[in-house]
Amino acid sequence: MLTSRTTLPMLIGAICTNAALGDMVGIVNITSSNGFSQTASLDGIPLGDGSMYWTHQLNSDDFTVSTTMVGNPEAASIGTVLQVVNGSTAMLQFNIAFSMTLEALPVGISEWVASQSVTLGGIDSTLSSIIDLPLWSVTLGDVETAVLFETPFSLNAGSEGSIAVAQNGSGSVFLTGGDSLGVHYHFELDAGATVAFSGGFATIPVPASIALLGCWFIPVGRRRR
User: Fold this and answer.
1) I want to staple 125 with a disulfide (CB 3.0 to 4.6 A). Which of 131, 138, 154, 193 is the partner?
2) Which parts of the chain fold into alpha helices (H)?
C-alpha cells in the first residue's frame, strides 16, 4: 500500500541544468501498489518563451502511464496532462510525481492559482484518494502549496462508463527563490479503468490569475455529476 508522498529530495537530487544546450532536466517518479517503481530523467525542450516541454510514456505489464508537462522555471508555473490505464485484473494504487527546478524567482509573497479536471472511464469503475493524501497537490520546495480533491475523495463512472469533475483553487505563497516545483498525484484506480488529469498551477499577479484558469480548463465533453 502506498501511504506516503514521494519526497522531493529524492527527485531533485537528479535535476540539473545543461547551460550549453539550455535544456532543463525534469524528474518523473512512478510507483504502484503491485511493486512497480520507476524514476526517469527527462530532457526538457525549450519552447522559446521561457517555458520547457517534457513528455513521458510508460508501458508496463499491468498499466500504462502517459504524461506531458509544460513548465516555466522562471515563473513557477506548470501545466500537466496525465493519463493512466489500469490494464490489470486488480485495483492499483498509484503515486506519480513530476518535479522541476525554479530559476530567478523573487523572494516574497506571491498569489497562486490552480485548476484540475479529472475524467474517469470504465463501466462502474471507481477512482478514489489514498488515505491521508489528496488526489492532486503542488509543492514549492518542501512546502505543500496547493491541494485539490482532498481526501476522502471518490468518483464512480456508473453504468454510463464515463464521468468528469473539475476543481479550481487559489491562495498565496512565500517564494524564497531557486526552489523546486513538484506536482503529485495519489490515487486508487479500478481494474480496467482509465483516468485522465488535465490542468495546471502558477504563481502570477492578480487579476491575470483569473484569466489563466480559463485557459487551463480543457472541456472534456463528458457528463458532470
Assistant:
1) 193
2) 8-12, 208-216
